[in-house]
Design goal:
hydrolase (chains A, B); homodimer; Neurolysin, domain 3; mainly alpha; 2 domains; 3-stranded mixed beta sheet; Peptidase_M32_Taq (chains A, B); carboxypeptidase (chains A, B); EC 3.4.17.19 (chains A, B); 489 residues; metal-binding (chains A, B)
Amino acid sequence: MTAYENAMAHARQTEALAQIAGRLGWDQQTVMPRGANAQRSEEMAALEDVLHARRTDPRLGDWLDAAQAPDEAGAACLRELRRAYARNAKVPARLASELARITPLAQDAWEAARHNEDVASFLPWLQKMITLRREEGQAIANGGDPYDALMEDYEPGTGSDAIATIFDRMRPRLVALREAILGADTPPALTGHFPQDAQLRLSRRMAEHFGYDFTRGRIDLAVHPFSSGSGDDVRITTRVAVDDPFNCLYSTLHEVGHAAYEQGVDRAYALSPIGQGVSMGVHESQSRIYENQLGRSRAFTGWVFGAMQQEFGALSVPDEDAFYAAVNRVTTGFIRTEADEVQYNLHIMLRFDLERALIRENLDATDLQEAWNTRFLADFGYAVDRPSHGILQDVHWSVGLFGYFPTYALGNIYAGCLFKAMQADIPDLQQGLATGDAQAATTWLRDRLQRHGALRPPVDTITHACGFAPDEGPLLEYLEGKFGALYRL
Amino acid sequence: MTAYENAMAHARQTEALAQIAGRLGWDQQTVMPRGANAQRSEEMAALEDVLHARRTDPRLGDWLDAAQAPDEAGAACLRELRRAYARNAKVPARLASELARITPLAQDAWEAARHNEDVASFLPWLQKMITLRREEGQAIANGGDPYDALMEDYEPGTGSDAIATIFDRMRPRLVALREAILGADTPPALTGHFPQDAQLRLSRRMAEHFGYDFTRGRIDLAVHPFSSGSGDDVRITTRVAVDDPFNCLYSTLHEVGHAAYEQGVDRAYALSPIGQGVSMGVHESQSRIYENQLGRSRAFTGWVFGAMQQEFGALSVPDEDAFYAAVNRVTTGFIRTEADEVQYNLHIMLRFDLERALIRENLDATDLQEAWNTRFLADFGYAVDRPSHGILQDVHWSVGLFGYFPTYALGNIYAGCLFKAMQADIPDLQQGLATGDAQAATTWLRDRLQRHGALRPPVDTITHACGFAPDEGPLLEYLEGKFGALYRL
């Protein structure tokens, strides 16, 4: 076997084992008996040890040094493998092991702190996590910027300076839009009681309309919706609030977007280094365009209005227009995961600036709460009323996910670009959506983006799909256009 | 770390990974999307490679050579590890890999052959599987008997000569009992329509009454009922036939017996080499005593009769005695898994003699069908009418499970001994069971047997629990007494 073939065979087995780890994560959050928690931790740790040993196996390094790619896909595989190997080889085993050990403890501390609104009890854990991840970033960066090094894990090839520049251009326009909307009349919300079974039935229908392949996936309930797995086993979860059906329906569409990307990758790439989504930002572009640009459009919500009347009888809003306004209602709120399309990106920008400062040692964890609250008031126009509505709301920092947040906003930006290109290519897009038919859109996304997996780096993936290089323009125009019309600004 | 500590740490991680493999098996048979089959095979193969490498790791051999046990439990752990290591080290990697490759293909061939009643199409696969497993048995036996070597995988320390001697003593008494019963009047069966939900509700109640810990397990539906996992994550499955509620109820109790053993092992042994059931035979003793000696007793079926009336309304049988007779009905039949307590062991003896002859080259696969049918007529008194009722009925041989069948009968023999000892120790056993309360019995089993896991070898485990060495006497007395009374022989 050639060095290339050896590297690919090794990577394929590693990927198969990584899929198993993902499946265990699914199991843990859906069906696992609660008494199995401690045992499962030990099982997962054993599997993570195997994965870590394979990913830092010196033989893999030798093969990658000598490997010659036979074609474009092979070159992309080597690009992905070399990046991951170089990264993993730079992290001292002691540090990787300490991070693995501290993470569940820090997460527990965060959960307790959030429950008790007690920032002080979480600060030592946060400081420890910042120190360890900074150290990891420094080891990877090798003299470069540690925050950029961490970002590479989630969004390779997009440095934080580029992100900061984009965000700085976006912020004033989003703040202005947010101010104008909150100054206008707020449309009525949808109210009522919506039984779980009917919500799940409708969300399954919507998943089917958006192309989710149930023969290679399934939908279950979980506390936090997520998508898990690649290739032929891509499972999603959703949740139900009986007084808020949009929670279930749009969580489902969001996860269907992630799952469609994984299910849509060319099967020739299965279990290879390019057999899955190329980055978190590109992944989020799929979940966001399914959920927002398509799922929350005037056309598709018109169909949802009718489908909901069938399932639930008469609704508290009288017609399709009022329903569309209810789906896209913008109000004050503190929680990122519940934010509307307009305010969501402001949440991300706040976190991005703060976490970059933390990792770069420009902000101390002890000053984080004040920095958060000051910034929140400036961007959102109202003050944080408690820690669980402020710095304690997200799990990310407690588990060391520094550098992850910007990928959410990047996903929105990419979704804006993809939607612009898609509209130009599909003249009757809205007519289809108005009948609940998303096939033209999902086929376009599959052909232009999903099937290519990680063949091209993230920005190239979007550029290839859109026919133009991505920037924040299309997203801002979309938001200003949509919400300007809705709120008659 | 000492050699002992190194060996134990290594084994603990291997066991954690083996638990993951078990969990994937559960997933595959309960919740996995059907389109994921091929991908899952590759994932499982990757994990099996990891497990095989660990189980034959030369470092483990060195540690085991040098290890000194600190106490009785440690000595038992070393006993189990050394036996497994010596076995695995003797099997050539080429042979292990060829067996892994051929097994799913042979199983597919068996499924098709059974469906088409086509023995000829399965014979080449059967011959291949016999050859490979014989070769494996010879490699392990190192000049000794290859069938005994294979049996060791499932029932260490009990050679096939001992089994043959016991079976030869049992056969005439069981054949005589079977003839007498089939010559007597057959009691009416329970008939009716029994909705799935109610069957599952009642089977869950029975599982609770028999001590199944739902905080460390769960019950799902599957085509073939099974129990899976050890320690704090022991899941069982059941199945439902709407015209035969005993299928669901007693499959559940059977699996609860297996699960209770795994859940009952001393938690100090968790993930250690003695942290699970010691052998298939001892495991089967637990499933059988829960299902038969306890679950199908006159006392407990009296409670089931009342519980079924609550769930399903009036039944087709008028009273507890008629219900007890319906539960324990003995009729002609071809299928092992559907056999009653009397005829079940005759099925096993037939398979044991034939498979031992196959492995020992005393019987050729081409003569197997005739040998099966001749023997069946002699032992059961009626002729096999088609291959799927004869040599094609069981999956075992197609997946190479030679040496496994005798553990089923051994389990029945052990259950007979345990029940005899239990009755002597618990004077009011029947009074408890008559109210649906199995706690006295399950507590006795947990204390005497389950909590010890694999601390002692199989026969010692039973001897320790019973206070006497096991033989077939108690089982035969129990069967002759129970069915003699039921059928007024």
